[in-house]
Amino acid sequence: MKAELVVLLLCAVSYTSAQSIGEGKKQKDLSVMLDEVVITGTGTEHYLKNAPVQTEIITRKVLEQYQARSMEELLSGLSPSLTFHDGNMGSHIQLNGLNNDYILIMIDGKRMNGDVGGQNDLNLLNPANIERIEIVKGAASSLYGSDAIAGVINIITKKNRDKTDFTSILRVGEYGDVRESASLGVTVGTVKSVTGVNCSHTDGWRNTDLQWNQQQLKSGSTLKTVNRSSDYTVTEDLTWTLNGKLSLTASGSYYERWVARSHGQWSYLSNDFYYRNYGLAIGGKYELNGRSYLTADVSFDRYGYFYDYKLQEVTDYFKDGDRITYYPGQRIKQSLQRQILGQAKGVFYFGERHILNAGLEYLYNHLESPHHIDGDKASVYTLAAYAQEEWTVLEDLVVTVGARGTLHKETGFNLSPKVSVLYKMNDFNLRASYAFGYKSPTVKELYYNYTTALGGGTVTAYHGNTDLKAQTSQYASVGLEYVGNELQVSVTAYVNQLRNMIELVEINLSAEEKLDEIEKSKKYMNLTRARIGGMDFTFNYLPTKDITIGGGYSFADPKAQYPNQGLRYMKYIPIDATSQHNATLNATWRHSWKRYRLGLGIYGRYQSVRRYVEDNNAEAFQTWRINTAHTLLEMKKWTLTLNAGVDNVFNYVDRTPFGRNRATTTPGRTFYASALIKFKSK
Amino acid sequence: MNMRFFKSSMQAVFLTTVMCTGVVACSDNDDEESTRNPAEQQVARTKQHDTALLLCTFGSTYNESLSVYDDIIDDFKAEFPDVDVYMSFTSRTCINRVQASTGIERYELDQWLKAIGDAGYTRVAVQSLHVIPGEEYLSLMNTDIKKYFMIQWYPNINVLRSANLLAADEDTKAVAEVLYKHYASQLAEKNNIVLLMGHGNPDENYNANHKYADVQEALQRKAVNKNIFVGTVDYGDMLFWPNEVEENPADRITDASIVRSHYPACIYSQIMQYCDDNGLQPADVKVYIAPFMSIAGDHAHNDLWGLEALVEGANINDVELCTNKYSWRERLEKIGFQVQRNFESHPMSQIGADHGIVDGCGIRALGSYPEIRQIWVKHLREQWDANAWENGQDYQ
Questions:
Q1: Roughly how many angstroms between the first and final C-alpha of chain A, as a whole number?
Q2: Domain presence at residue B265
Q3: A460 or A472, which is more confident?
Q4: Contact A284, A14 (CB under 8 A)
Q5: Interface test with A, best of B7, B35, B252, B298 (most A CBs within 10 A)
Q6: For the segment B102-153, what is each residue's pLDDT rounded down to a tens digit?
Q7: Mean pLDDT, rounded, of chain A
Q8: In this predicted structure, what is the pLDDT of residue B103?
Q9: Residues B153 and B179 placed together within one structural domain of the fold
Q10: What is the ipTM of this complex?
Q11: What DSSP state is assigned to residue B139?
Q12: Pair type for strands A621-632 and A638-647
């Protein structure tokens, strides 16, 4: 731990996200939105309407209007390509048919650390601290490296630009839902500070009392559809502007989460869950002549996942020849994931026509997981270098070419190139891109060596594989966007092909394993492939200054090969838990009187049948929400908005018994209220 | 450097330092994994004598097993009043499940043995509750008791090892006698068949599976119609259908004539042969089914009776004979036999109970017969009277 701290303190310089060029404009809402500055697609700042790579954004304003109870609800409610489904370990995100393994989630351009079963923990995000969310679909490994195969979700946090800036959102809903998200920005001299606090709690709920148990459908289940949970996050970001050229940043975050699991007949769950994360980052930005700049930063994150025992559990683990037993009240470590990320980057503007973005990255991942890895610990590192050129060939033609070379401890060298083209014809943008994506094997896939009988089943030996190659993909897309005064529409068609996908494959038992009475042996191997074709459509329409209509439709046909499927062995079948059609729609009407503004919003989401490899498909559903926003006007520094709304107006509830696949966890129609308070002093 | 710049620099450094130390100083509050033995407490509460008796079985999560285990414990207590009785489960799942749902403490062998050894007992009798002397039984007696407990851990404690149910030929005869008496009226009719499901030892090297064939033979000697059969749920030759456990469907045998010609010992071949020999059609035959296991647990409820399919009202036409996905009852009914659903079965009204029911299940297991329980007791009595105690020093 001390060594890690020293590494952090030794490294001096950093990064700052980009965004200020679009500030302070008073325009119509559509142009305001299109004048948002985005950074994720190219790593350089562009107005959304001119971005060389198609980028979807969720702005702070939309986020505040939507009044979601969770990050999942926010993302799935506002982006048609993002869906969430229930999994063993909670909620699983999907982007255009691929799961979290193939989605890179970043906070201010830095990959999020920590997952449980491959799922990033989105609960540690503070909605009040989010400036905007940028979603770039398709392979982006040329800039961001591993995992950016389905796409990238970049959460841009607030940077304080005022003397004092305070935001507080308190949301209260049924089932004991409470969330308080607050953010306080203060400027003292040359130091800017943003402090964030986010706490949330839910009592959880149960949509059915039926449960599948030993192939029988039983009533009286004590499981909950959504478990009771509480969490909080505290963050602090400091920016110190030394002079006109150099600024330094330091940030830290701390997060804890408790999930209680009810238990009783059918499921005697012996433990609750506990999660804990902290992160530290320091960095700096040095402005060169013109708009060019250099940034460098180093971050350290540590994510822990624990079992809080409430029942005694005799284990099959031994220490010094004695059997380990877990006792009620004990907190037992399941995994600790440490990540050190060092990035140095330069963005160079050469004349009016060339932008060069080049950088170096060092990533170190350490996994500690008692009884699950030989020696309980393992680590990998990668070193990467990338360069990207944005060349404005003609006034209306921008070509972006980039590549990233990554050196991985076990898989060696990988090259991920990307080329994208933006051609502007009056109000139309034509975009095309072709990119390689890649995902390096996880620490677990490389080093897992473990024997267990899951759920009292077959005694199986699992083997990591240090000979694994990276999973790779090729992605091609063509998109057309219309940007008019009142209407913005975009259509993008894409194909994504994945190779060398890593699967757990049954292998022959070794003589030693037979002697140890192991019944099956499985190893991670580069075995399967996937191919996804799809189309995304989004639009925003502002017929009058009071009305906004927006939405999107996403079609995806993701198919992959699966081993261990009997007669379907290695045939292309729909990827597990994917739906082909997803759509969102939102319509808001806002009208201001002298001292009062009323906002009415209707939000809808549709998801078609979710197809599963095993068991039942989850049924199609749609949910609708009505939000009313009441804002007091004519207060100079203060903004006060009270929201009241009905979520899931038509009371859709999926009452599929526990143990089978569900479409959604919504408890049905619920009422909520929230207060948004803002204070700003220039 | 002006004062303002200095002040703000100091503030930044201070805040950063506070933040870093604050965050880094936090501990996870997690606990060391503990090897404290939970069996010690139970032994401390129980210990009244110098001799312990450890009853060893695989265990069950089913509520039906509770009263049978209680009866077994009571029988031993009645016969050996001066010993403290403990019961061990080999299955960790069963230990944790039973404790969570009932509070009853079974533990692993190593946990009981260490707790007993440390508690000051001078003698430990170990009674197997296994039916056949298969892999579990030999592992218990040779590895856990002899190698670890006697030789490595407690060479000074005297140990008495007592055999499983079907140890000697006379046990086989005795069990057959009890069962024959129980089914006598059914066996008297030619158009009745009694089918018993044993567990079986999947590894054939242990040479213990022949005990089932011995029992069948002994029963058929008594039953003039030879209309009682013993099969297994987990051993190749005596399964309902050969290769039924194959996970790869392509490896399963689907042709009934091949089964009959190549696998005459499997249950399907035996009962079809019985029908042929007696000029019966399956539809003419009533079948009575029961487990040939110490308790009626998961195998009896699901692999034998197929209760889940009854709950769901599954279509008999979907049933395939060649896979153990379907219970014996379903496959028998698919062939056309009249399985006697009301004979010693689980009450249909309580089919959905969590891991069976404490009272009222009609399924009779071997441990449900007092006379059969007495065979285990007799084994220990004989060893006891022969003063067959030994300890680790005898092997040094």
A1: 41
A2: yes
A3: A472
A4: yes
A5: B35
A6: 999 999 999 999 999 999 999 999 999 999 999 899 999 999 999 999 999 9
A7: 89
A8: 93
A9: no
A10: 0.86
A11: I
A12: antiparallel
Residue B278 sits at φ, ψ, to 5 deg, of: -105, 10
**Looking at the 3D structure of chain B, how many domains does it have?**
2
Closest residue in A to B89 (Cα) is A314
Q: What is the mean predicted confidence (pLDDT) over A147-174?
A: 92
Residues of B in contact with A254 (CB under 8 A): 22-23, 26
In the stretch 33-52 of chain B, residues with CB closer than 8 A to chain A read: 33-38
Q: What class does CATH assign to A2-217+230-681?
A: mainly beta
Q: Provide the residue type at A150 as one letter.
A: A
| Chain A nearest CA to B178, separation (Å) | 32
- CA distances (Å), origin B328, targets A4, B76, B173, B342: 61, 34, 26, 16
Contact A648, A666 (CB under 8 A): yes
List of chain B residues whose C-beta atoms are within 8 Å of the C-beta of residue A252? 19-20, 22-23
CA distances from B158 to A10, A235, B108, B109 (A): 65, 64, 20, 17
Is residue B18 very low, low, confident or very high in pLDDT (cuts 50, 70, 90)? low
Q: Judged by CB atoms within 8 Å, which residues 55-114 of B form the interface with A?
A: 91-93, 95-97, 99-101, 107-108, 110-111, 114
pTM, full prediction: 0.87
Tell me if B8 and A188 make a contact (CB, 8 A cut-off).
yes
- Which residue out of B27, B32, B96, B139 would a mutagenesis test of the A interface target, given it has the greatest number of A Cβ atoms within 10 Å? B96
CA distance A573 to A531: 10
Q: Which of residues 149-188 of B touch A (CB under 8 A)?
A: none
Please tell me what DSSP assigns to residue A205.
B
A631 forms beta bridges with A597, A641
> Do residues B125 and B386 lie in contact, with contact meaning Cβ atoms separated by under 8 Å?
no
In a domain, B32, yes or no: no
Query: Is residue B28 domain-resident?
Result: no
Q: Give the best residue of B9, B16, B106 to mutate against chain A (max A CB count within 10 A).
A: B16
SS (H, E, C) A280-348: EEEEEEEECCCCCEEEEEEEEEEEEEEEEECCCEEEEEEECCEEEEECCCCEEEEEEEEEEEEEEEEEE
- Nearest CA to CA, how far is A318 from chain B (Å)? 8
pLDDT confidence of residue A8: 34
A and B: number of Cβ contacts within 8 A? 146
Pair (B174, B318) in one structural domain:
yes
- Examine residue B18 and state whether it is found in any structural domain, yes or no: no
SS3 for A615? coil
Give yes or no: residues B80 and B177 share one domain: no
List the CATH number of the domain containing B69. Answer: 3.40.50.1400
Q: How confident is the model at residue B25 (pLDDT cuts 50, 70, 90)?
A: low
Of B5, B28, B35, the CB nearest to A304: B28
Residue range of the domain that includes B312: 169-244+253-293+306-344
| Interchain pair A218, B354: CB under 8 A | yes
What does the pLDDT look like over B356-391, one tens digit per residue?
889 999 999 999 999 999 999 999 999 999 999 999
Facing residue for A280 by CB, picked from B20, B30, B92: B20
Q: Average pLDDT in the A218-237 region?
A: 92
Indicate whether A7 pLDDT > 50. no
Q: Which A residues, 508 through 567, put their C-beta within 8 Å of a C-beta on chain B? A: 566-567
- Residue burial A136-147, b: 16+ Cβ < 10 Å; e: rest: bbbbbbbbbbbb
Distance from CA of A630 to the nearest CA of B (A): 38
Closest CA to A477 of A116, A121, A150, A166: A150
